[in-house]
């Protein structure tokens, strides 16, 4: 049981790290908002709505890489104690919930980005699981 929990935690840490790295690289293209924008919900929504589509595509690529890595790592780490798809689904589910929370905390993101990102997490963790077997 401990190995399964550790596998999920490590997979989530690596997935989060990948997303952070990609978003840091993306900040070279799209400058982060100032404190005046972050403190005003209307300005934040406008800022997010007017962001370039390429910036959202880069973030989506980060989500794809992170989900794949999460599924791959959780499968490799738990291979001796779990052979099914339960753990990759747990990682994908947690990443999906985090994606929903991201959308709620940063309103104004394009709907196409929300839909594609939410459709990315679980399938890509399962693809990562498949590659790891």
Characterise the protein shown here.
The protein has 133 residues and is mainly alpha-helical. The protein has one domain (2-132). It contains seven helices and no strands. It has helices at residues 2-26, 35-38, 41-49, 53-78, 86-105, 111-118, 121-132. Helix 1 (2-26) packs antiparallel against helix 4 (53-78). The longest helix has 26 residues, at 53-78. It is elongated, with a radius of gyration of 16 Å.
Features:
133 residues, 78% helix, elongated
Mean pLDDT: 92
What is the subunit organization of this protein? Answer: single chain
Query: What is the overall number of helices?
Result: 7
Proportion of strand residues:
under 5%
Question: What is the structural class?
Answer: mainly alpha
The main sheet comes to: none
List SSEs in N-to-C order.
Answer: HHHHHHH
User: What sort of overall outline do the alpha carbons produce when their principal axes are compared?
Assistant: elongated
| Contiguous runs where pLDDT drops below 50 for at least 5 residues | none
Helix content: over 70%
Radius of gyration, in angstroms, nearest whole number = 16 Å
What is the tally of beta strands? 0
The N- and C-terminal alpha carbons lie at a distance of 20 Å
Q: Count the domains.
A: 1
């Amino acid at each position: 049981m401990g190995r399964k929990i550790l596998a999920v935690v490590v997979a989530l840490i690596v997935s989060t790290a990948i997303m952070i790295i990609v978003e840091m690289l993306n900040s070279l293209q799209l400058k982060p908002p100032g404190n005046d924008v972050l403190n005003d919900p209307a300005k934040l929504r406008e800022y997010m709505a007017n962001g370039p589509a390429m910036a959202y595509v880069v973030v989506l690529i980060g989500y794809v890489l992170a989900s794949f890595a999460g599924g791959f790592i959780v499968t490799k780490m738990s291979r001796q104690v779990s052979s099914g798809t339960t753990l990759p689904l747990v990682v994908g589910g947690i990443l999906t919930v985090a994606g929903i929370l991201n959308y709620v905390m940063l309103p104004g993101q394009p709907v196409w980005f929300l839909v594609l990102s939410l459709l990315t997490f679980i399938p890509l963790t399962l693809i990562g699981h498949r590659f790891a077997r």
